Amino acid sequence: MMARIYQPTTTTIRRLATVLKRGGLVAVPSETVYGLAAHALDAAACQKIFEVKGRPPTDPLIVHVHSLAAAAVVAELTPAARALGRAFWPGPLTLVLKKKPVVPEVVTSGLDSVAVRIPQHRVFRDLLRTSGLPLAAPSANPFGYVSPTTAGHVQDSLGERIEHILDGGACAVGVESTIVDLRNPAKPTVLRPGKITAEEIAAVLGVPVTVRRARAHPGKVGAKKGRTAAQRAPGMMERHYSPNTRLRWVKSIAGDEVLSSGRRVAFLFLARPADPRLAALGGRVQWLSAAGDPEEAARSLFSRLRALDQGGYREIRVQRLPDDPAFAVVADRLNRAAARGR
Ligand code: TXA
Ligand code: MG
Fold this sequence. Notes:
This protein is an alpha/beta fold and 342 residues long. It folds into two domains: 4-176, DHBP synthase (Alpha-Beta Complex), CATH 3.90.870; 246-338. Helix content is 34%, strand content 17%. The strands form three sheets. The protein has a nine-stranded mixed beta sheet with strand order 2-3-7-4-6-5-9-10-11, with helices on both faces. It has a four-stranded parallel beta sheet with strand order 12-15-13-14, with helices on one face. A two-stranded parallel ribbon has the order 1-8. Strand 13 (265-269), helix 11 and strand 14 (285-287) form a beta-alpha-beta unit. The two termini are 31 Å apart. The structure holds threonylcarbamoyladenylate and magnesium ion (MG). Magnesium ion binds at residues 138-139, 147.
């Protein structure tokens, strides 16, 4: 049986809140990507998330809450956490904090920290308020695959394994939240880049922020060094967000290269290629944003990767991105999508 997609109304939100209270799973929209939610204080419900996603138990979940008061139930809110919360919540920021004992071990993979976020999407907020629950939710994709940014994406890859998908439209940000580890107040660290930048975080905290930054254009993807770092930090696996089709960075894509390539090679440009012959090739030539805008590129990235992955191509060649911090998040996700091995 395929999952049912619900349009958000007072009635469907009430109904899905009941599903969650009873230990069921609901795929939910957020401003970043769709999440697969369960009652965060119900260990058995959260265990199901890992089973449905095929996610290793060593990769902890983010707990979503409606308010700072609700955040304080699951985590120790330090002054730095409150300051960042006031500045960026509700929004695409996740804080790693010391966990409170009520949070089951399955959620945090046995760590003494918990990742917490107050999301901004109106539909997600309605569900959090109506249920009155903290909701553990990873991105609603099979482990390691491209994150979903529409209800249809969730249906495509998890529709046979879950029953309920709440439709909140296409995600406005399109890439996952920025994750900041705040456990050491003297040394806040960005674990995963997102829309909210290290500079913005540092400006609020008044201390320098360390970033574990993926290089925009690694000479070799899949280098050993990344994998070792990945093993030290939960969830920082080098390969992630990956289509099944092989992705390869190329410095520049010449029109002639595209025209002479076989039909089983696809191309992903940042902007719409100027050469009209390329745009006319249809599905195997795609771009992230007609005008090359970084926010629009982030918003469309996962949709484009999914579309290309369904085309049956042998390889997707990705155009190198400009060396500009505005593209750091898109470059991070593409680097991981292109990394080989798990
Ligand atoms: O935007 C988002 O953050 C989306 C939406 C649904 O909120 N969620 C999301 O969840 O991206 P997920 O599970 O795909 O990624 C969560 C990341 C994982 O890399 C996980 O390892 C890390 O957060 N994480 C969770 N708890 C952690 C902790 N206590 N310490 C360090 N990293 C943690
Ligand atoms: Mg994910």
